[in-house]
Design brief:
Largest sheet: 4 strands, antiparallel
CATH class of the largest domain: Mainly Beta
CATH architecture of the largest domain: Beta Complex
Shape: elongated
CATH superfamily of the largest domain: DNA-directed RNA polymerase, insert domain
Number of domains: 2
Number of helices: 4
Strand order of the largest sheet: 1-2-10-9
Radius of gyration: 20 Å
Number of strands: 10
Oligomer: single chain
Structural class: alpha+beta
């Protein structure tokens, strides 16, 4: 069995899997897509909102903003730990768009992957202010916790050889998604073996 990186950049990685049974390769693909835990905004307390967008619309948009996630942070964070993010647009006398860069995070790492994601456009004298909480989750719970936009598995012209391609949402580096997925698959297989042993 072997894994070989054949192409990678900031957003995408392609790995050649050799000697790995198809069912394991596909399991790895699925974990890359939605099995690696990342942070996403889960709850939003809208303290003030005079924009044309309803509170629920604001909360929905915030949940879909990818947040940078650090794997070393994940190892010391429980699923119940939350990171607070806040935004206060202040008063404005002209029309302006509020972007993800206006969000302030209590954590230096866990913050929007880009400052240029639009949230809402405010007309003169409109205002928005909220407190949001991000927590760890997996894409199996909701798509906003997907660590990858795509994860595909294609065959080559050789037996038992596949190409795994993973494109990140930006929350994690592509190579970290693959490495974390390998560890997750290994843990799941070990847990399955233990369960089967207990049945005997």
């Amino acid at each position: 069995m072997s894994l070989q990186v054949i192409n990678q950049d900031e957003l995408k990685i392609s790995v050649k899997l050799q000697g790995i049974p198809l069912q394991y390769a596909n399991a790895l693909r699925r974990i890359c897509l939605n099995g690696v835990p990342i942070f996403a905004i889960d709850t939003v307390d809208v303290l003030e909102n005079s924009s044309i967008l309803a509170d629920e619309g604001i909360a929905h948009r915030l949940g879909l903003i990818p947040l940078k996630t650090d794997l070393s942070t994940i190892e010391t964070t429980s699923d119940s730990d939350k990171i607070m993010l806040t935004l206060d647009s202040g008063d404005t006398t002209e029309t302006r768009t509020i972007f993800s860069g206006d969000i302030k995070s209590q954590d230096g790492v866990i913050k929007p992957i880009s400052d240029k994601i639009p949230i809402v456009t405010l007309a003169p004298n409109q205002k928005i202010r909220f407190e949001a909480h991000a927590r760890l989750g997996r894409g199996t719970e909701h798509a906003k916790w997907n660590s990858s936009n795509i994860a595909t598995l294609t065959e080559t012209d050789k037996d038992n050889e596949h190409i795994l391609t993973v494109e990140t949402t930006g929350a994690l580096e592509p190579k970290h998604i693959v490495l974390a997925s390998i560890n997750e698959l290994s843990n799941r297989l070990n847990n399955f073996k233990e369960t089967m042993s207990d049945l005997k």
